TrEMBL record, chain A:
Description of how the protein assembles with itself and partners: Heterodimer with SRP9; binds RNA as heterodimer. Component of a signal recognition particle (SRP) complex that consists of a 7SL RNA molecule of 300 nucleotides and six protein subunits: SRP72, SRP68, SRP54, SRP19, SRP14 and SRP9.
Transcription recorded as keyword: no
Name this protein carries in UniProt: Signal recognition particle 14 kDa protein
Natural source organism: Panthera leo
Gene Ontology annotations of biological process type: SRP-dependent cotranslational protein targeting to membrane
Function, in words: Component of the signal recognition particle (SRP) complex, a ribonucleoprotein complex that mediates the cotranslational targeting of secretory and membrane proteins to the endoplasmic reticulum (ER). SRP9 together with SRP14 and the Alu portion of the SRP RNA, constitutes the elongation arrest domain of SRP. The complex of SRP9 and SRP14 is required for SRP RNA binding.
GO cellular component, one term: signal recognition particle, endoplasmic reticulum targeting
GO molecular function terms attached to this record: 7S RNA binding; endoplasmic reticulum signal peptide binding
Family: Belongs to the SRP14 family.
From TrEMBL, chain B:
Gene Ontology MF terms in the entry: 7S RNA binding
Domain of life of the organism encoding this protein: Eukaryota
Protein name per Swiss-Prot or TrEMBL: Signal recognition particle 9 kDa protein
Family in the record: Belongs to the SRP9 family.
Species assigned in the record: Panthera leo (Lion)
Membrane-spanning parts: none
Domain SRP9 residue range list: 57-125
Length: 104, 138
């Protein structure tokens, strides 16, 4: 699993979509992240770990290649604006009949 | 003894055909369990699967249930999107590893709703607890 910065993640995600244009699926997973970098030990608790509340993990894969990024509250706007749905829209150009619905 | 061999394999299965049954030597030997199995119909698919996995036909039901599932335990729940360009289909799944809610579509208007829902969930996840924004259900 490759951890990337947000711009790089978006670039790689676009590449994933392009690769899976003719066949295959793109999986995107989103989950809340509390900033832990070490696994939870079976006995006792992790010392000096402050769970943070404002992050989430975004992962993408096509079955073979895996990429991921951490989105915090500062970057979430970037992900809303330059969202990967623009990529979806660009790729769905072929299905022309519903394009006007994408325009905000 | 047409059912002999199959019965030997099934002897550890209970009356429902699930692996929770025990031998019943007190009833009359090792074929006792299998004799009971012959008259039982196979259990419905929902019983055989572990977690429940409803597939929703309407977006409103799905979004309400998914929001409830996420708010019940935000750290456990995750959202998975599967996009197939060759089929033009999009599938969204919200799960907390016990319950799994699925909504599939190939309509562009649903895709827009899914995108809005996904963005709202992302905002919920990164918002601090004291200022969490309530989601608007469709």
């Amino acid at each position: 699993m490759v951890l990337l910065e947000s711009e790089q993640f978006l670039t790689e995600l676009t590449r994933l979509f392009q690769k899976c244009r003719l066949s295959g699926s793109v999986f995107i997973t989103l989950k809340k992240y509390d900033g832990r970098t070490k696994p939870i030990p079976r006995k006792g608790s992790v010392e000096g770990f402050e769970p943070s509340d404002n992050k989430c993990l975004l992962r993408a894969t096509d079955g073979k290649k895996k990429i991921s990024t951490v989105v915090s509250s500062k970057e979430v706007n970037k992900f809303q604006m330059v969202s990967f749905w623009c990529t979806l829209y660009a790729l769905s150009q072929g299905k022309g009949e519903h394009i006007e619905q994408w325009v905000r | 003894m047409g059912r002999g061999v199959g019965a030997r394999r099934r002897r550890h299965l209970g009356p429902l055909g699930l692996r929770t049954g025990r031998w019943l030597p007190e009833v009359g030997g090792r074929w006792a369990g299998s004799r009971r199995l012959r008259s039982r119909a196979s259990p419905p698919l929902a019983l055989r699967c572990g977690p429940t996995m409803p597939q929703y036909q309407t977006w409103e039901e799905f979004s309400r249930a998914a929001e409830k599932l996420y708010l019940a335990d935000p750290m456990k729940a995750r959202v998975v999107l599967k996009y197939r360009h060759s089929d033009g289909s999009l599938c969204i799944k919200v799960t907390d590893d016990l319950v799994c809610l699925v909504y599939r579509t190939d309509q562009a208007q649903d895709v827009k709703k899914i995108e809005k829902f996904h963005s709202q969930l992302m905002r919920l996840m990164v918002a601090k607890e004291s200022r969490s924004v309530a989601m608007e259900t469709d």
